UniProtKB/TrEMBL annotation:
InterPro entries: 7TM_GPCR_serpentine_rcpt_Srx (IPR019430)
Lineage summary: Eukaryota, Metazoa, Ecdysozoa, Nematoda, Chromadorea
Annotated ranges, domain 7TM GPCR serpentine receptor class x (Srx): 9-194
Protein name: 7TM GPCR serpentine receptor class x (Srx) domain-containing protein
Origin: domain of life: Eukaryota
Transmembrane intervals: 30-56, 95-119, 140-157, 177-194
Record's compositionally biased regions (Low complexity): 215-229
Annotated spans, Disordered: 204-235
Keywords from the named record: Membrane, Transmembrane, Transmembrane helix
Organism field: Caenorhabditis nigoni
Length: 235
């Protein structure tokens, strides 16, 4: 029963994280298209209330699911034969359709946001702050789409693809290995798109700044000239 509780807890937290990502996508959409209503819908209080309510809903779902599993002896345990966690899911088809929907819906939401950012990027000059902000938001769009698709890939392999071949190596790959790899890939994506942690990122220096830097460097290397004395030379 302990294994079942731990595994179902991880799954519910994963679903919570996926809905949080969708919430962030809608957040950006409202901010860019409806800025006047943003504080009302996505202010601190509204955001906190939404996350608390949804977190409590996950706790409710987790509690009733494990009570039902305990009463019906439908545990989720690690199978030595298949090298993966196995057990009867409450709604396997429902989770599969949810996974597909959680990719399609945020994709369209992010597409509208991306279109707006792309328009702002083309309207602004390359040296303006609006251009840099639009470019940054477009990068965040790509990151969000990739991370949202990871959940769907995990669910599709866990619920559908693993049933194609009854072999321990295949079930290990499609469930255990793929699940752990997706967590690693998610972390790598966060590092790649993080501005402070991006590898090989160089600060761009404009020609004007480069000229000023070279001038100040030359001025610093030239020793100061001794002051000329205007006193008469005494023999």
């Amino acid at each position: 029963m302990v294994e079942t509780v731990l595994l179902t807890t991880a799954l519910n937290l994963k679903v919570y994280n996926e809905f949080q990502s969708i919430y962030l996508s809608i957040n950006r959409l409202v901010a860019i298209y409806f800025p006047l209503t943003y504080n009302l819908l996505f202010g601190i209080k509204a955001t906190l209330a939404f996350h608390i309510l949804y977190y409590l809903d996950r706790v409710r779902n987790l509690t009733f699911e494990n009570i039902d599993r305990g009463n019906n002896l439908k545990y989720m345990l690690y199978s030595v034969k298949h090298l993966a966690y196995g057990g009867i899911l409450v709604t396997p088809d429902g989770m599969f359709y949810w996974a597909v929907g959680l990719v399609i819906f945020p994709f369209f939401v992010n597409a509208f946001t991306f279109a707006r950012f792309y328009y702002l990027k083309n309207q602004a000059s390359q040296n303006s702050e609006k251009f840099n902000n639009a470019k940054k938001n477009m990068s965040m769009f790509v990151q969000t789409v990739i991370q949202d698709s990871l959940f769907s890939v995990s669910v599709i392999f866990t619920l559908k693809m693993n049933t194609l071949i009854d072999h321990r190596f295949y079930t290990f790959f499609s469930q255990t290995f793929l699940w752990q790899s997706i967590h690693v890939i998610d972390g790598i994506i966060m590092i790649i798109f993080n501005e402070r942690l991006s590898i090989g990122k160089n600060k761009r220096i404009s020609p004007k700044e480069n000229s000023q830097k070279n001038t100040s460097t030359v001025a610093a290397t030239v020793p100061p000239t001794a002051p000329t004395s205007h006193l008469p030379v005494v023999h």
